[in-house]
Amino acid sequence: MRLTTLCERYDERLRTEAFAEVDASANGLQIGPEEGEIEHVAFAVDAALETIERAAEAGADVLAVHHGLSWGGGFERITGCTHDRIAALIENDVALYVSHLPLDAHPELGNAAGVADLLGLDACEPFGSLGDETIGLRGKAPTAFEGEGLCDRLASLDTGGREPRLLDFGPEEIEDVAIVTGSGADWLGEAAETGADALVTGEGKQQVYYEAREAGVTVVLGGHYATETFGVRSLRSLADDWGLETTWIDAPTGL
Fold first, then answer.
1. What CA–CA distances, in Å, run from 9 to 51, 100, 132, 214?
2. Alpha-carbon span 213 to 199, nearest angstrom
């Protein structure tokens, strides 16, 4: 398959262009020859030196990730870690495809969709407003959770040995659950305003403790890495369906 074909298929499914005004990430093909031919795609959450080197060792032609290398308008200087990562990609002839917010948001392939499936939520609808787009989901639990039970449902995530954290400030019975993966604590206000019982996200800032307590909303912090493995796994499944060889690279941060 041509590299451009792979990128175009992903971009079309994920509505990449729709997020151009709200996402600092340079989504799509960040590094690589547009006319290259590919047979093997590796998938990871982060474009780190470790994952790049492991993709090269696996013989991959492309590394597809959620967190890429180019943010906020591109590279000013290619030095330090950025230099080492780009050099590893070029020296090993590995292209880099990135999908950040489009892969958070997708209602079937995305990170929030994966968490919603894990929790068994029904009647999911868009949540997490960002400009004209949304980057999360909100759904109903068919059987109400207690706070500990909701937290326990995330224990199967690959957290790198770190337990999910629970801020149990919501109602005793949790039925309405909002999800924004990764660093999604900024959407606690929207969860409270729209009547959600709980917000599930990856990591939290210091102020989320008091904001959650004062708003009466339970917050579960499942880990940034752990809540954002679902999307790239979905991209891998698509590549499998398209007849490409694939490799999953697991590199949990515990954060």
1. 23, 16, 23, 45
2. 12
